[in-house]
Amino acid sequence: MASSAKLPSRLPPTRIDAEGLGSFVVRLVEDRDVQFLVEIHLRQFPDGFYAKLGTAYKKRYFHEYFRSPGAVGLVAEQCDGSGVVGYLMGTVDNDAHERFMYGSAAPALTAAGARALVARPALWRDFLRRRALWYAKRFVSGAARTRRPSREPRRGELLYLCTTQGNRRRGIGAALLRAYVEGAQRARAAGLHLVSERENTAAHEFYAHRGWRVVSESVTRDGRPLVSMALSLGGTST
Ligand SMILES: CC(C)(COP(=O)(O)OP(=O)(O)OC[C@H]1O[C@@H](n2cnc3c(N)ncnc32)[C@H](O)[C@@H]1OP(=O)(O)O)[C@@H](O)C(=O)NCCC(=O)NCCS
User: Fold this and answer.
1) Could you tell me if the CB of 226 is within 6 A of ligand 1?
2) Lowest-confidence range among 15-24, 31-40, 126-135, 227-236?
3) Which strand (E) or helix (H) includes residue 124?
4) Strands of 83-91's sheet in order across
5) How far, in Å, is the centroid of ligand 1 from the Cα of 106?
6) Residue closest by Cα to atom 6 of ligand 1
7) Residue nearest ligand 1's atom 21 by CA
8) Rounded to whole angstroms, how far apart are CA atoms 25 and 74?
9) How far apart (Å, rounded) are the C-alpha atoms in residues 169 and 72?
10) Which of 47, 163, 229, 230 has the most Cβ atoms closer than 10 angstroms to its Cβ?
11) In the chain, what are the domains?
């Protein structure tokens, strides 16, 4: 998988001792992790249109995301062999990531999305009424944007961070976040941002304690309120 191949020197595996859990290591995602990550992910984030497209679509999305040259996937894995206890996925270079997702990854993602929709007629109405046109416009403007060289400072987006139930408040989330921020600094990103559900105040506190600041609020196409947070890294690369 590309993220494993491209970043090992930037993100060497880090061994950490967690209270009550023994040691765990933070390392780059590998192909063999994807099935389990999708399972944890859909358990933790079952709502929303993409989750309803099902496991096969999510697996394809994760595979493509981790192949992106602008993205990184990290897992926390227990050293005693009992498995993965958390994961993080995010970009360290949004422009490179968008170029990949709107370019090389687009055919596979579109095909996976179409297959998922064909198998789920209950989603057609929602898709046709609220999303089809929006996706088409977004794709056209995104593809056009990625063809123009960007003059903006490099930025990243933290997409998902999740630790498994029963393994929280042991330092795993903080270790994953630290490794990601270090990776973004090494990629010379000027800043990071994330979007999460407004009701997830525990997560906002977790981020706020690590220097992230709320920058705006918005509402999803389904009417769910969101909060955007940002972390400044002071990178200078464009
Ligand atoms: C948010 C989330 C990722 C945090 O992960 P976590 O592994 O619990 O995080 P940590 O253990 O590193 O830190 C959580 C808190 O526990 C505390 N903690 C860490 N180790 C601890 C220990 N041994 N004993 C008690 N508390 C501890 C940390 O100090 C931290 O508190 P702080 O924010 O006040 O500093 C996790 O709760 C989660 O997966 N939530 C569901 C998914 C989600 O909401 N994701 C974020 C939105 S994308």
Assistant:
1) no
2) 15-24
3) helix 124-126
4) 14-18, 22-28, 71-78, 83-91, 155-163, 191-197, 225-232, 213-219
5) 34
6) 173
7) 170
8) 10
9) 23
10) 163
11) 2-232 (3.40.630.30)
pLDDT given for residue 16 in this prediction: 67
Rounded to the nearest integer, the mean pLDDT of the chain is 86
Nearest partner of 228 among 83, 203, 125, judged by Cα? 203
Task: Give Cβ neighbours of residue 108 (< 8 Å, ≥ 6 apart).
Answer: 60, 64
Report pLDDT for 1.
Answer: 41
**pLDDT tens profile 40-74:** 999 998 888 888 989 999 999 999 999 999 999 99
| Ligand 1 mean position, distance from CA 197 (Å) | 16
Is 180 a pocket residue for ligand 1 (Cβ < 6 Å)? no
pLDDT of res. 2: 33
pLDDT of residue 14: 65
Instruction: Look up residue 73 and give its two tokens.
Output: 């996937």
The type of residue at 107 is P
Mean pLDDT (whole number) for 212-235: 90
